[in-house]
Design a protein that fits this description.
9 helices, Nucleotidyltransferase, domain 5, single chain, 16% strand, 10 strands
Length: 345
């Protein structure tokens, strides 16, 4: 898969989650530059959620215009799902303000760049295969356990999309049949039991303050879901990222591996390993860049234009690059380090 992602330019990368949104420029070797983070507003107004993201994108693009790094030629976005095929509209469960929100089109209009949008966990899977812990692997699962729980599956060296582009939603695999109600409408889903908000609801305190018993319980439930996927799809590697998984650390991963070993009885599934994602907290942004690189490779192969393009001049619905977005620019992080170090998401 990594050969499909070869491209010598820089990419604008955007990661959208239920707790935070991040933007950076990503180089041809996965290096990050100009990284910015903003909190995801707890608002039911779609524009109020988009405004701080637009401000962060504008600041990162301004840095490239200033010559700190090369100007990007395209952009990639990882966003929670579900979403329409090709990422034309997104409806992330953890951002209720966005229902069929045209995220790619809005960012293309803002930046003047073609944008590719995919599920954030599928993006992570691409990034891990490109420059992360899955390099050289043709069959693996990448997961995010954070505000939500998502997954991306690579089989035979190809990222699985599914009929609507929503393949890999491991967060909605049932791990407790009589468990908690889930935002998806189901019950006992992994996301309803092991995500950050679920842990806070169960314990009455933030996930970061969970005791070891809760950390192990979450690891066990993640391992239970991974075991089912490993047996179903004949893969032996699961890489897990996200603030909950990486923050919980060794007790979480030990419990997850113990559960995988207990549940994987078929000979081909017994070697399954569950490990921290290799890219750490850089994974979502590197993955978003990989989405754009993969879409470019697909376009070059098929000859089709798969990326949302900017609107004609004069019809932008948001501020152009370089124009301030009033009231939100001050909240944008000014982290300018080039980083691909591990940490919490």
């Amino acid at each position: 898969m990594s050969d499909d992602l070869m491209y010598d330019g820089w990419v604008l990368a955007v990661d959208v989650g239920g707790t935070k949104m991040e933007v950076a420029l990503v180089g041809p070797d996965g290096t990050l530059s100009g990284r910015r983070r903003v909190d995801t507003p707890a608002s039911l107004d779609a524009e109020a959620v988009f405004a701080p993201l637009a401000a962060a994108v504008t600041m990162v693009m301004d840095e490239s215009v200033g010559g700190v790094v090369a100007m990007p030629d395209m952009g990639g976005v990882g966003c929670g799902g579900p979403m329409a095929a090709g990422g034309a509209h997104v409806s992330p469960l953890n951002i209720p303000a966005w229902r069929e929100f045209p995220l790619g089109e809005r960012l293309a209009d803002l930046t003047g760049l073609p944008m590719a949008v995919d599920n954030d966990a599928k993006a992570l899977a691409l990034g891990e295969g490109w420059v992360g812990g899955a390099q050289g692997s043709r069959d693996y699962l990448a997961m995010v356990v954070s505000t939500g729980v998502g997954g991306g599956v690579v089989l035979d060296g190809r990222l699985l999309d599914g009929s609507g582009g929503n393949a890999g939603h491991i967060g909605h695999v049932v791990v407790e049949p009589d468990g908690r109600p889930c935002a998806c409408g189901g019950r006992g889903c992994l996301e309803a039991e092991a995500s950050g908000p679920a842990i806070a609801a169960i314990t009455g305190r933030p996930a970061a303050e969970a005791d070891e018993a809760m950390r192990r319980r979450c690891g066990t439930l993640v391992g239970r879901a991974v075991a089912s996927v490993a047996s179903l799809l004949d893969l032996q590697l699961a890489l897990v990222a996200g603030s909950v998984a990486l923050g919980f650390g060794e007790p979480f991963f030990r419990a997850a591996q113990d559960e995988v070993s207990l549940r994987c009885g078929l000979e081909f599934a017994r070697p399954t390993r569950i490990v921290p994602a290799g890219l750490g907290d850089a994974g979502p942004l590197v993955g978003a860049a990989a989405v754009a690189r993969m879409r470019l490779a697909t376009e070059q192969t098929t000859g089709s234009d798969a990326l949302p393009s900017p609107a004609p001049s004069g019809v932008s619905t948001v501020a152009r690059v370089g124009a301030p977005v009033r009231g939100v620019t001050e909240s944008v992080s000014t982290d300018r380090e080039r980083s691909s170090s591990a940490g919490s998401r």
